[in-house]
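Ticket #4471: structure export looks truncated?
Reporter: QA, pipeline team
Priority: medium

Steps to reproduce: submit the single chain below to the structure queue and open the exported record.
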Amino acid sequence: MRVTRIVVLHGLYMSGFVMQPLCKRLEKTGCDILNLTYNTLDPDKQAIFRKIDEFVGTQPTALVCHSMGGLVARDYLTNASEQSQHVKKVITLGTPHKGSAIAKHMHDKGFDRLLKNSVEYLLSETNTWPFSARLYSIAGDLPIGLMPLLQKGSRSDGTVLLDETKLKGMAEHKVFHLSHTTLIYSRGVMDYIIEILHRDE
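Actual output as written to the record:
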């Protein structure tokens, strides 16, 4: 099913501002966009879910999410509102679906104040995608960031391990030679997202 109604969710320490180039590209293809800004360190789940519900209504919708935004999307689907049943596709960019090794390292070293309530999402561990919405997980393998220092020889986008982006039950997994943040701005990634949204499936 081709989807033209899109909720966009940003990642940790960010806001909807960083997602604007992606949103503008999607708007040019005729998509209606909710670029939702939320407090990543103290997310008000009910307010987030309510805004998504109001936007989705009864229309086929996709969630396009960077990093922690993909974990918020999972929580939204788990909440199982009537509106969430209309979410057909979830596209994540650099989302640590299995939990974030960097966040766990910070937690173990006592740096919880830098993560605050985001740990509810970033330290959650799961291996499966149980929802009817199809998951398309996009990952990067250009290791610019802390991850190469924490886990030598690992494959990552510098922030999220490649393995953290994989789940049983996902529809597709695609790797781009990009770092964690540049996944948002890549023309190739944008083209791939649009191709997924236009698929009649």
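Status: closed, not a bug. The export was complete when the record was re-opened. Leaving a note from the reviewer for reference: The chain has seven helices and six strands.
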